[in-house]
Design goal:
Helix 3 (80-89) crosses helix 4 (102-110). Strand 1 (39-46) and strand 2 (49-56) form a beta hairpin. The protein has a two-stranded antiparallel sheet. Strands 3-4 form a two-stranded antiparallel ribbon. The longest helix is centred in the N-terminal third of the chain and has 25 residues, at 2-26. It contains 5 helices and 6 strands. By secondary structure, the protein is an alpha+beta fold. The protein is globular, with a radius of gyration of 23 Å. It has a single domain, classed as Putative Large Serine Recombinase, Chain B, Domain 2 (Hect, E3 ligase catalytic domain fold), CATH 3.90.1750.20. 38% of the residues lie in helices and 18% in strands.
């Protein structure tokens, strides 16, 4: 009996926490623990609580300039690998002090926070994985490092570069002969 009450209490508490996070996000407050690279948390008094909004670092700071440069390089049709190589060759590091990698660059270029948009609970057009709820989106929640048009243009360019994945059963193959042996080639 006590276990079922504990389970109910735990599930109810989880729903209350999710509801509170979504409400804070709707009001434009940052609900994460660590802000994205180039942004920092600013405490804001909200009635009797301290909540946080995001603001870009100073335009003279290295992280701010690196984020701008990432998007500028992507707009010049440079890929994530090429961008990471350039940043690493110049000795620049991520917010955690690590070397830049393809995935890290890709995450920065896909993060809507840099265009001033707060997103909580899923990717654009996708429901949250566990709850099935639509994501909370707040446009202009804080000053943008990159304008919205440039951000969207980078998204289109990256989508066009995305490799097309085809299930192996749908790919046709042809057979041709080379000399005395037969070779099978797979055609995309």
């Amino acid at each position: 009996m006590i276990e079922s009450i504990d389970q109910f209490y735990s599930e109810n508490m989880g729903e209350d926490i999710k509801r509170g996070l979504r409400e804070s996000a709707r009001r434009g407050f940052f609900t994460g623990s660590r802000p994205p690279y180039g942004l920092h948390k600013v405490p804001v008094k909200d009635s009797n609580k301290i909540r946080y909004k995001l603001e870009p670092d100073s335009p003279d700071s290295t992280p701010y300039r690196v984020v701008r440069r990432l998007f500028d390089m992507a707009l010049k049709d440079q890929g994530c690998k090429a961008i990471a190589k350039v940043l690493n060759s110049e000795g620049l590091r991520t917010g955690t002090g690590e070397r830049w990698g393809v995935i890290t660059v890709h995450k920065v270029l896909n993060n809507e926070a840099y265009s001033g948009t707060l997103v909580l609970g899923g990717r654009p057009g996708h429901k949250a994985i566990r709850s099935g709820a639509e994501p909370v989106r707040v446009e202009n929640a804080w000053p943008a490092i990159v304008d919205r048009e440039s951000f969207l243009q980078v998204q289109v360019m990256m989508a066009n570069k995305r490799p097309r994945v085809t299930h192996p059963r749908t790919v046709s193959s042809i057979t041709f002969s080379v000399g005395f042996s037969s070779v099978q080639a797979v055609m995309p």
